[in-house]
From TrEMBL:
The UniProt record lists the keyword Lipid metabolism: yes
Organism: Sphaerisporangium aureirubrum
Pfam family, one: ECH_1
Stated family: Belongs to the enoyl-CoA hydratase/isomerase family.
Annotated protein name in UniProt: Crotonase/enoyl-CoA hydratase family protein
Keywords: Lipid metabolism, Lyase
Matching InterPro entries: ClpP/crotonase-like_dom_sf, Enoyl-CoA_hyd/isom_CS, Enoyl-CoA_hydra/iso, Enoyl-CoA_hydra_C
Length: 254
């Protein structure tokens, strides 16, 4: 990790901050590798159940560092994608906390997250066509799966900016906050997630993300291969015991 990617762990939540505010948190190779290094450690930690991804200085990310691009500094990591997550998002749940701009690759990072909290002043967009590029880090692939086709095409083809309120109406943003409060709201949601059983969270996210193309004939068999170990886990027994004894569960992640 480097100073361009900051990590803070508290209460079962890891806040990962892109820390290049002077360039609106544009993503370069150092950031991408820093995110990968952070996640490689955090994914194995039992004291971390959820992530919050955000940017420093009042901006989420303006996308790829175009000056770096011109010099061959590509913000991709083999097998992980742009910014270290677009091709292989983390196994644990990720909440995006968006202030300011989430444009181009910045928007694609948001689309790699599971829940999106945005300030009322946040702006989203895929301006790649304005620069002779294509939103190839998941933007044009994921966006039509999250919002209606014609609106996704408008966003992808015009390259214009769209306010958080509009994306909230479309169901892409979970919660809109006053300016400056996106991180606090994202941490609140992540805290509710982190209070739940770790194995159940991993299985639930995996089912939601993998089941989109499962046929009706195979879906329950595939689900069983993922969830059977959860039902036989120590945490499942602990959850039932805690309910019966009217106390908070003590999860072991086993």
């Amino acid at each position: 990790m480097s100073d361009e990617v900051l990590v803070e762990v508290e209460g079962g939540i890891a806040v990962i901050t892109i820390n290049r505010p002077r360039v609106k948190n544009a993503i370069n190779g150092t950031v991408a590798r820093g995110v990968v290094a952070a996640l490689d450690e955090l994914e194995e930690r039992k004291d971390v159940a959820a992530y919050v991804l955000t940017g420093a200085g009042g901006t989420f990310s303006a996308g790829m560092d175009l000056k770096g691009f011109l010099t061959g500094d590509f913000p991709h990591v083999e097998g992980r994608g742009f910014g270290g997550i677009t091709e292989a998002p983390p196994k644990k749940p990720v909440v995006a906390a968006v202030e300011g701009y989430a444009l181009a690759g910045g928007f694609e990072l948001v689309l790699s997250c599971d829940i999106v909290v945005a300030s009322e002043e946040a702006k989203f967009g895929l301006p790649e066509p304005k620069r002779g590029l294509v939103a190839a880090a998941g933007g044009v692939l994921r966006l039509p799966r999250r919002i209606p086709y014609h609106i996704a095409m408008e966003i992808a083809l015009t390259g214009d900016h769209y306010p958080a309120g509009r994306l909230y109406e479309l169901g892409l943003v979970n919660r809109v906050t006053p300016a400056g409060e996106a991180l606090a709201a994202a941490k609140e949601i992540a805290g509710k997630i982190a209070a739940n059983a770790p194995l159940a969270l991993l299985a639930t996210k995996r089912l939601v993300t993998e089941s989109a193309d499962w046929s009706q004939a195979e879906m329950f068999a595939k689900q069983a291969s993922i969830v059977n170990s959860v039902f036989g886990s120590k945490d499942a027994m602990e959850g039932a015991a805690a309910f019966a004894e009217k106390r908070a569960p003590r999860w072991a992640g086993e």
